[in-house]
Amino acid sequence: MKISIKKSLSDLQGLIILPFFESENEVKLPENLSHSTISSRVFNGKKDSIYMLEDEKNLLFFIGLGNSDATFKSIQTAFRRVTAKHESIFEEDFNIIFSNDFSNEHIQAAITGLKLGTYRLSHFKSTEKEKKDWNKINLTLISENSNLEKIAKDSIALASAQIETMKLVDLPANEVTPTYLANWAQEKSKELGFKVTILERKEAEEIGLHAFLAVSQGSSVKKSPRFIIAEYRHEQAKKHLGLVGKGVTFDTGGLNIKTAGMVHMKCDMGGAAAVLGSFTAAASLSLPINLTAIVPCVENSIDNDSFLPSDVIRSYSGKTIEVIDTDAEGRLILADGLSYLVKNYNPDSIIDLATLTGSAVGTFGYECAALFSKDQSLSSAIQEAGLAVGEKTWPLPMWDSYGKEMDSEIADIKNYHGKPFAGAITAAKFLEAFTDSHVSWAHIDIAGTAFGDSEFAKTKHATAFGVHLIIKFIEKL
């Protein structure tokens, strides 16, 4: 989608999108259009309403956004519907007119929504008609906003990173293997100019990433583990942020095999995808931050070499772990990822994202992610960033009494407490044990928000939850 900027309404032809906030009065159209007003009985900007009007020169597409205090997410969704559900009205060129009622955030929501609406799940369909090439579509933005060009450029970069994130999660596990993710990161590093290091099984063994390797013991050679280390540095950076993402490309549950919902377990690398997506977005936007991302990628499969319940395994931190349940595998690879990040980089703050527990879904459903941190300022900043862009998080307690649930008789810690309560909290307490008491660490359990149902597909699909949250968090530092 190519974008150009105009301040006047002269020579506008073809599709013109006109967004309006709700009003009881008749809708007044910009000058130079063939119509001057629209009766409020026909269209008044009510939320989720649309109206189309065609003449010899233009197709006018009205979008109702509701009250002027409409949220970022609601505006983004309204615009996403246009490209997702009205694809046929788009030809080579189209236009959007933003009145002075639209803030920078409103405009960003609109442009990211339009871009997100171009994403389709039909990656492998051979019988579908030829797909529209949105890269050949020209969008002209008309507004008096002096920041419009930067807003548009940044919005397209952000939405593009979100689409890449969704694709990583939506593609099947026979495509998105640990090697695929490693190669993807390397290709992006060449394109955007950051550093990537990939550790394969031998290198990981040599430096002691034993918990990470244990999870992958049952996977085939072509799905062997990859430990991704990405580094982005900016000369004007004042802060160093560390990111860790859970990259289980498929989770059978291991020998504690899942009994339901396994078809969706390609999404168990949603945390890895969100970290990679936000990392590449930050690099694309040239944000003034130093970033280090650790993305441990494995497949948790079943084989005669699979790790077993009751195994005691070592970890990068030196702590020993009693394996109670092989389906509590994500925290094992995150443990080594967190330890490696703290020991070798010790960033100012650390955020990890993971589709970690069903308990988080049981607590919050699909409305928001579970947030864990003892750093109140970090927790508040994450919550505020998420609320601003429609990616909600809400804190759960990190009291030390929950940590006692993870005590092991035979090892330093166990990976699962085996009880039907506080599963998300005890998982967070397990991870905390591998942060070396870092004072500014947050864990975000995105099990209920990374993958789900929506109006934009007939099946469950990726959301890219976490990408915009991390970018907004960085922008507010």
TrEMBL record:
GO MF entries: aminopeptidase activity
Transmembrane segments: none
Domain Peptidase M17 leucyl aminopeptidase N-terminal: 37-127
CDD domains named among the record's database cross-references: Peptidase_M17 (cd00433)
The entry's keywords: Aminopeptidase, Hydrolase, Manganese, Protease
Entry superkingdom: Bacteria
Any Pfam family the entry gives: Peptidase_M17_N
Domain Cytosol aminopeptidase: 167-470
InterPro entries: Leucine_aapep/pepB (IPR011356), Macro_dom-like (IPR043472), Peptidase_M17_C (IPR000819), Peptidase_M17_N (IPR008283)
Family indicated by similarity: Belongs to the peptidase M17 family.
PANTHER family listed in its UniProt record: CYTOSOL AMINOPEPTIDASE, LEUCINE AMINOPEPTIDASE-RELATED
Name this protein carries in UniProt: Leucyl aminopeptidase
Organism of derivation: Belliella kenyensis
